[in-house]
Amino acid sequence: MGRVRLPLVPQWLRLGGVSAVAATILYFSVFTPPGSGAIRTGPLGVFPYSTWLHALAYFGLAVALAYALEDRPWRNRTVLAVVFLVAVGYGGGIELLQSTLDARTADFGDLLVNAVGAAVAAVVWRVATRQVRFYRARRLGELEVPISE
């Protein structure tokens, strides 16, 4: 079976994606979203809805960071450690910010869930990229068929 070929878009675009994810997390962490509190539990009724949102948000942030750092000359472990630490550090900063807001509260449990989401993303990224070969694509015309032999 061939490896999946995925484009590695220019660095500025990858970092823009990271910034967009981080800004979205910041927005929904500072302002109470409309209809918040209406949904009590997440999928399967196992964890609260907010726990799922935290895990998915920091999973997404970590994946965006890992993709942005994919062409760095660092070892995989170093990249994944940086991804994890930056995502958890960002989550910690958000929790500190929330502690200063009247409408929000800081919660160590949220920080722990953020760390779990980032850790799962790092593991998934490591496993998935073993089956992926990235190629540089600077223009739309350089995109290729994703499966190669």
Report the helical percentage: 55-70%
The largest β sheet comes out as:
2 strands, parallel
Number of domains: 1
- In the predicted model, the low-confidence regions spanning at least 5 consecutive residues are none
Which class best fits the helix and strand makeup?
A: mainly alpha
The side-by-side strand order for the widest beta sheet comes to 1-2
Query: How many helical elements?
Result: 4
Could you give the distance between the termini?
Answer: 7 Å
Strand content: 5-15%
- Overall pLDDT score: 83
Helices and strands in order, then pairings?
Blueprint: E1 4-8, H1 11-30, H2 49-68, H3 76-99, H4 108-128, E2 132-136
Parallel strand pairs: 1-2
Helix pairs in contact: 1-2, 1-3, 2-3, 2-4, 3-4
Can you walk through the features of this model?
With 149 residues, the protein is mainly α. The chain has one domain. The protein contains four helices and two strands. It has helices at residues 11-30, 49-68, 76-99, 108-128; strands at 4-8, 132-136. It has a two-stranded parallel sheet. Helix 2 packs across helix 4. The longest helix has 24 residues, at 76-99. The chain starts with a strand and ends in a 13-residue tail after the last strand.
Attribute tags:
single chain, 149 residues, mainly alpha, two-stranded parallel sheet, 2 strands, 57% helix, 7% strand
Short précis:
With 149 residues, this protein is mainly alpha-helical.
